[in-house]
Amino acid sequence: MPKPIIHFIGAGPGDPDLITVKGARLLKQADVVVYADSLIPIDLINHYVKPKTEIIPTADKSLAQILEILVDRAQSGKTVIRLHDGDPCLYGAIQEQMNGLLAAGIDFEIIPGVSAYQLAAAKLRVELTQPQQIQSIILTRVSGRTQVPATEELETMAAHQASLCLYLSARHVQKAQTKLLKHYPADTPVAICFRVGWKDERILVVPLTAMASTTDRENLIRTTMYVVSPALKAATVPTEYGTSHISKPTTTATSNLYAADYDRLFRRSHELKQRDFDD
Ligand SMILES: C[S@@+](CC[C@H](N)C(=O)[O-])C[C@H]1O[C@@H](n2cnc3c(N)ncnc32)[C@H](O)[C@@H]1O
């Protein structure tokens, strides 16, 4: 019998086409899929698995119960998938599962997935890094039932005025808005991204001052991620909301990548080519 191994797979944000080729191949071979049912549509699993695959939701299970299932099925020689939404390394609570598996002598591998912020940026048709304006993306959450370390408080993060993707925060959106407003201008666009990649996906782009009121009014509480970014001023969002909330880009700066006078390893600048030629 082959050595037991659990495959942790990132399912992506919900769209079945956004799982990796490797993740999909393993799902097709799975005997058992243990999955986070509140965050992964069952359609995504049914799309790939063979008819007799055992599918086990975990929303009502404790860590000990999940570990017991994983260890039991792996030890009986089954191909076991632990399916997480988005990318497992981000708020996936996989560390304690991996520790438990190591303690039980079961090996594992991790197959990454597309995180919610990546699909949100794609739907918004925006580059979250903008030349001369934003060169960092912060992935974070606001303190709620789970406390964020003082050094990572939202207000501290907001001080960078980078592109900021806010997970797990819709229930504390008023608090988040207040902290963000300490540093971001009031008209900074915020994309409220509700269940991106799901059939009932909604994406609303509003000024920062309307972040909380819009979330509450539209009841976008469950599975919502926010993108707060001056870069959204350059976005052209093809949603039900059109482009009306989005003002003109604040920067027309372009990246050095395609600049004719920028020397790169695989494409030397015009000036250098000319000089070489003259020599
Ligand atoms: C436990 S975290 C897991 C994040 C996940 N590992 C990822 O990489 O996207 C769950 C939170 O991620 C965000 N999220 C996950 N899937 C989403 C989706 N399809 N649309 C919008 N937000 C999503 C929401 O903020 C949700 O509360």
Automatic annotation (TrEMBL):
The keyword Aminoacyl-tRNA synthetase does not apply. Keywords: Cobalamin biosynthesis, Methyltransferase, S-adenosyl-L-methionine, Transferase. GO terms for molecular function: precorrin-4 C11-methyltransferase activity. PROSITE patterns: SUMT_1, SUMT_2. CDD domains: Precorrin-4_C11-MT. Pathway: Cofactor biosynthesis; adenosylcobalamin biosynthesis. GO terms for biological process: cobalamin biosynthetic process; methylation. This is Precorrin-4 C(11)-methyltransferase. The gene is cobM.
